[in-house]
């Protein structure tokens, strides 16, 4: 998946960095297509709501009995008051730009549904360097 996203970002003069700290042999049971859709939606949002020279960091770590995935970008970000609302169906942070940028306001709601269907949780935060971060956890298989 990372190779696909790297190519997409090159077309937008951006870059993708992957930091994977999951030990070998760790297993999780997921619907592969739906799980890929979560990443597709998150990367697509980063590209859509950012300017050229976007940087995206994908971080994967073991967090207790979960695997934690984070996508951080250098885009405009979202104010903390919006962090929970952005996962609501049809919610738009900037209503005035929604038509020109396309989309339906469903991407993050779909991500939440998929993550929760896999027994996980998803949330937004502000990375130290600005932009927007989205993290989610999925339980590991025992």
Produce a short descriptive summary:
The protein has 142 residues and is of the alpha+beta class. It contains 4 helices and 5 strands, in the order H-E-H-E-E-H-H-E-E.
Q: Could you walk me through the main structural features you see in this protein, from its secondary elements to its overall organization?
A:
- This protein is an alpha+beta fold.
- It has one domain: Heat Shock Protein 90, CATH 3.30.565.
- Helix content is 30%, strand content 25%.
- The protein is built from 4 helices and 5 strands; from the N terminus they run H-E-H-E-E-H-H-E-E.
- The protein has a 5-stranded mixed β-sheet.
- A hairpin with a 2-residue loop joins strand 2 and strand 3.
- The radius of gyration is 15 Å and the shape is globular.
- The two termini are 25 Å apart.
Summary keywords:
single chain; 142 residues; alpha+beta; Heat Shock Protein 90; five-stranded mixed β-sheet
Roughly how many Å is the radius of gyration? 15 Å
Count of extended strands: 5
Domain module count: 1
According to CATH, the homologous superfamily is Histidine kinase-like ATPase, C-terminal domain
What is the mean pLDDT?
A: 86
Largest beta-sheet characterization: 5 strands, mixed
Give the distance, in angstroms, between the N- and C-terminal Cα atoms.
25 Å
Which CATH class? Alpha Beta
Envelope shape? globular
- Portion of residues in beta strands equals 25-35%
Strand order of the largest sheet: 1-2-3-5-4
CATH topology: Heat Shock Protein 90
Secondary-structure-derived class: alpha+beta
Order of helices and strands: HEHEEHHEE
Number of helices: 4
Assign a percent range to the helix content: 25-40%
Can you tell me the residue ranges where pLDDT is under 50 for at least 5 consecutive residues?
none
């Amino acid at each position: 998946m990372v190779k696909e996203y790297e190519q997409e970002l090159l077309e937008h003069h951006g870059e993708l960095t992957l930091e994977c700290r999951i030990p070998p042999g760790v297993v999780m049971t997921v619907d592969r297509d739906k799980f890929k859709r979560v990443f597709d939606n998150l990367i697509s949002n980063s590209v859509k709501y950012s300017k050229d020279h976007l940087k995206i960091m994908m971080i994967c770590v073991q967090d207790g009995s979960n695997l934690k995935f984070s996508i951080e970008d250098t885009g405009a970000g979202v104010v903390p008051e919006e962090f929970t609302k952005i996962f609501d169906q049809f919610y738009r942070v900037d209503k005035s730009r929604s038509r020109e940028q396309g989309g339906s306001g469903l991407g993050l709601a779909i991500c939440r549904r998929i993550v929760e269907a896999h027994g996980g949780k998803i949330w937004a935060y502000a990375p130290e360097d600005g932009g927007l971060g989205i993290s989610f956890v999925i339980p590991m298989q025992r």
